Amino acid sequence: MKFNTKTIHGGQEHDKAYGAVMPPIYQTSTYAQSTPGGHKGYEYSRTHNPTRAALERSIASLENGNHGLAFGSGLAAIDAVIKLLKPGDEVISTNDLYGGSYRLFTKIYADFGVKFHFIGMENAHKIEDFVNDQTKLIWVETPTNPMMNIIDIKAAAAIAQKHNVLLAVDNTFATPYLQQPLDLGADIVMHSATKYLGGHSDVVMGLLAVKDHELAERLYFIQNASGAICGPQDSFLMLRGIKTLHVRMQRHCENGRKVATFLNDHPKIEKVYWPGFESHPNHDIAKAQMKDFGGMISFVTKGNNYEEAIKIVENMKVFTLAESLGGVESLSGHPASMTHASIPKEEREKTGVVDSLIRLSVGIEDADDLIEDLKQAIG
Ligand SMILES: *Cc1c(COP(=O)(O)O)cnc(C)c1O
User: Fold this and answer.
1) Distances from the Cα of 197 to the Cα of 56, 60, 173, 326, 357, angstroms
2) Are residues 271 and 227 in the same domain?
3) How many other CB atoms sit within 10 Å of the CB of residue 224?
4) Predicted local confidence at residue 249, as pLDDT
5) pLDDT at position 16
6) Does residue 155 share a domain with residue 289?
7) How many angstroms is it from 22 CA to the middle of ligand 1?
8) How many A from CA of 103 to the centre of ligand 1?
9) How far apart are the CA of 12 and the centre of ligand 1, in A?
């Protein structure tokens, strides 16, 4: 089955009771048993729920995995992955990392004795310098947020396999439409499904997909034992969102290209971060591991003026100033005062998060309206 068919049919079957085309929302916590243990595969909804199971089959299918797992948020999904570790274990992670992941790693799991190394992975071979006997997990995010760095998943997977270490990829920005990390050698793929997979800014959810059966069993155990699952209503909404992922992503990419090109030609713009430009340092890797370049773009204005950047995001009318990304509507963000405000100026500037950096999540509106909006906002 091709990807565009899988978004609609992957792992799905028509409802056995009445033939409903969409999976029913099984809004139930428990299931009748005819005799103790005599059930139809479902006993309690933390462990299993038929609506959630339909979604879990869907993400497994989209990522070319054998197993999918759904959680109450992206961070709950990451939390489940880190629970595979024990005190003393070490993790090598991307340094330009989603802020919530960084907080989870440093403010919670570091206290449980897990050690994290945050390194620049634009040259993936550098990862190997940090591998030792305690290393159990490599955590990669690509493209990164908000600098749009690209990390070579295949090269990271080769290092992980050589040293018998797990490789997990946060695939939130790319989605399986653009990039399929399990096929490139990753062991675990993670999504904040809140973003592109849901696509309508109406659900918070996390998803994992894996190929390996034994690893899946360990993660299912954690999912049930820790209990950070999502409900059937949200599972239904996520499945509904996923059905249009391929059409939405195609338009996100088209609009992203137009907006990035417009910004790149604008006299007031200093630099545009978008992996589709040939001048992007890892453009060739992006081209090799991604089908297209997505709708996430960051840019800085000439003179790098904080107040000017704030004015620009305030002036936008079609773009909404908001946290999050990946919805049908275009959003803007100012990392220095929003997502990265808690990081000291000196620290954030080291990774490129300067005062005038603006991040765009380009939606699927008419590109002409988006460009007009940027024109009037930038002035
Ligand atoms: C939003 C996000 C997360 C966290 O997901 P939530 O659903 O907000 O918990 C993790 N990684 C990336 C790249 C994200 O954008």
Assistant:
1) 13, 13, 10, 8, 26
2) no
3) 14
4) 98
5) 87
6) no
7) 27
8) 12
9) 26
Instruction: Provide the residue range defining the domain that includes 304.
Output: 245-378
Contacts of 311 (CB under 8 A, 6+ apart): none
Ligand 1 pocket check: which of 95, 172, 229 to mutate, most ligand atoms within 8 Å of Cβ?
172
Domain boundary among 242, 269, 289: 242
pLDDT, tens digit (0-9, with 9 covering 90-100), for 16-69:
889 999 999 999 999 999 999 999 999 999 999 999 999 999 999 999 999 999
Same domain, 253 and 229: no
Report field, pTM of the whole predicted structure over 0.70: yes
Atom number in ligand 1 closest to CA 101: 10
> How far apart, in whole angstroms, are the C-alpha atoms of residue 138 and residue 16?
42
pLDDT for 128: 98
CA 76 to ligand 1: nearest atom:
9
Whether 194 lines ligand 1, by a CB cut-off of 6 Å, is: yes
The segments of the chain whose pLDDT lies below 70 read none
Percent helix, strand and coil across the chain, each rounded to 5? 40, 15, 45
Handedness of CA 229, 216, 236, 183 (dihedral sign): positive
| pLDDT at position 120 | 93
Looking at the structure, do residues 182 and 225 belong to the same domain, yes or no? yes
- Nearest C-alpha to atom 1 of ligand 1 is from which residue? 192
Measured distance CA(36)–CA(335) in Å, rounded: 55
Name the residue at shortest CA distance from atom 9 of ligand 1. 74
Question: Do 8 and 29 fall within a single domain?
Answer: yes
Q: Is the CB of 74 under 6 A from ligand 1?
A: yes
| Angle subtended at Cα 138 by Cα 137 and Cα 139, rounded to the nearest 5 degrees | 115
Point out the domain boundary residue: 219, 242, 265: 242
Same-domain status, 282 and 351: yes
Q: Is 327 in the pocket of ligand 1 (CB under 6 A)?
A: no
* Residue 340: per-residue pLDDT: 84
pLDDT of residue 36: 95
Ligand 1 contact, 333 CB (< 6 A): no
Active site residues: 46, 98, 170, 195
* Domains contained in the chain, number: 2
Predicted confidence (pLDDT) per residue in 151-186, tens digit = 999 999 999 999 999 999 999 999 999 999 999 999
Cβ atoms within 10 Å of 213's Cβ, excluding its own: 9
